[in-house]
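Task 17 of the worksheet. Students: predict the tertiary structure of the chain below and write it out as structure tokens. Keep your answer in the requested format; marks are given for formatting as well as content.
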Amino acid sequence: MPAAPVDLSVVVPMYNEQEVLPLFVERLRPVAEAWGVTYEVLCVDDGSTDATPVLLQRLRREWDAVRVVRLRANAGHQAAISAGLARARGAYVVTIDADLQDPPETIGEMLHVAREQHVDVVYGVREDRSSDTAFKRVTARAFYRSIRALSDVDAHVDAGDFRMMSRATVDAVNSLPESNRVLRLVVPALGFPSASAGYRRAPRAAGDSKYPLGKMLRLSIDGVTGFSIAPLRFATWLGLLGGVAALVVLLYAVVAMLLGNTLPGWTSTVVIVSAVGAVQLLALGILGEYVGRTYSALQARPAYFVAHDSLELEMPTPVTDDDADAAFDRVVSQTRT
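Model answer:
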């Protein structure tokens, strides 16, 4: 039999969070008990290699609302959130990281805003990002403004993956065929009615950041190529500009030849060849990125694999008609013997 739905699901992706997990639970549990709704805390263990799985199993015995979904291998932050969304039972689903940079106390405000304003999405907006480095603040704003300029996605500049979604929104996200989702762009792209709840972003409570510069760059590339064809148009314009420049150089060479001013020019030749080669390589790189995304989409490989779900382990296995017939046959055969 299917598990009973709840009012609110709190999806928490985790990867090697043994240091911050006890602090996160200490903050979340009293807040959750004050919500006055039925809820589940769905912890998605993204293939942790430290003591996080052990701590989660211990926590599950101490807190009935905790549900643990463990992935077979590390699939990445966005894939872990997608795994949580696919299995969440709540009428509303909120996603939050365990590092306590996003305060659990804001979840209650989000739920109130969603119900009072009848919106499908409530974004957690960072009104104060003084805890982030200047480099991160500048690059984040540049990224979101670039996305707005290059595509039709109205992404919030100071909103990350801390958001609350209605069941309709979660079902819409789960129905999308793409596997490498950038959820902070996918959700705004749906265009569902939304609101926001502001908060102050705190420093990471413990442990190390799971989003180093390399992963942030990969996320940015996935975001741009997944929601805009502007880079392809940019490559086209580069090709056109290169063609115009080549035509100008050709005309100059013809005129110089007619005037008898032709001299062997090693420097100009090298500069022109280098410039054209750089443009070609850039265009090929952009095309290759889109071809790679198309190839990955055609392969249709799952973004993650679930090892186990504690809720399914606790639920009794339903008896099918075939199982009942087999049991009946066994009883009849034993009676005859």
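Marker's comment: Residues 316-321, 327-332 have pLDDT under 50 and may be disordered. Residues 81 and 115 are 23 Å apart (CA to CA).
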